[in-house]
């Protein structure tokens, strides 16, 4: 095999090339772009907005059944970009994580108990919960039943941790195939405000002020870097319109309301919400009037 040709080194995901590359992981990133969809995420002062293209591949399909936006919990949203066949896998992983957290944590008056019913903490902050959930995921608290009365027991970091871990495992075994999906997770933290995370096929996950995934990812990131240069504190409307205008700019087309999907969370109403075509149309009109 000649050095630098890549020949043979992409037959197994666990084999590094002489240049230190894992070709099959790189192919997974290319698969995300090959789906032909671009997604944008923007974090504002008191809100987070994600926008993606809505492409219906067949005229006989019901458009309402085609989506890249998924409500993981009432307060956590997921935008999955990439190979269509992998989207349900990511959502299923999120649902399993949610179910594990929800049903392993018995509801007992908002306190933490061990198996003998002894109260460990009478009140739990998000920081405490995050710490204990992390230990639980690492197997260090398997002797405890974690109990809380909050409906948002699944935190965004917990979810991203599980998605990234699963994606990383898929890059370590020759009999597995990497997930050709980039997942954006959005939510409102009670202590730290709006949060936007992105998980990639290699198992990385980071928090972002703004980010992009898909076909025109780099062009969108260049656009967003200029918009976010001075750390602007966008209002809710500005956050939504910045995300939509970024998508329109990099793809160089004016969208109709039924050609994009928009998901938001707001501090005043932290529930994850997918905007209706009427709401999207209002923002599109505001963008066109502003420009």
UniProtKB/TrEMBL annotation:
Pfam families cross-referenced by the UniProt entry: Proteasome, Proteasome_A_N
Major localization listed first in the record, in broad terms: cytoplasm
Occurrences of domain Proteasome alpha-type subunits (ranges): 9-31
Transmembrane segments: 75-93
Compartmental location: Cytoplasm; Nucleus
Highest taxon in the source lineage: Eukaryota
GO cellular component: cytoplasm; nucleus; proteasome core complex, alpha-subunit complex
Signal peptide: none
Transmembrane listed as a keyword: yes
Annotated SUPFAM superfamilies: N-terminal nucleophile aminohydrolases (Ntn hydrolases)
GO terms (BP aspect): ubiquitin-dependent protein catabolic process
The UniProt record lists the keyword Membrane: yes
InterPro entries referenced in this protein's UniProt entry, alphabetically: Ntn_hydrolases_N (IPR029055), Proteasome_alpha (IPR050115), Proteasome_alpha-type (IPR023332), Proteasome_asu_N (IPR000426), Proteasome_sua/b (IPR001353), Proteasome_subunit_alpha6 (IPR034642)
Subunit structure: The 20S proteasome core is composed of 28 subunits that are arranged in four stacked rings, resulting in a barrel-shaped structure. The two end rings are each formed by seven alpha subunits, and the two central rings are each formed by seven beta subunits.
Family: Belongs to the peptidase T1A family.
Role: The proteasome is a multicatalytic proteinase complex which is characterized by its ability to cleave peptides with Arg, Phe, Tyr, Leu, and Glu adjacent to the leaving group at neutral or slightly basic pH. The proteasome has an ATP-dependent proteolytic activity.
UniProt-recorded name of the protein: Proteasome subunit alpha type
Organism expressing this protein natively: Artemisia annua (Sweet wormwood)
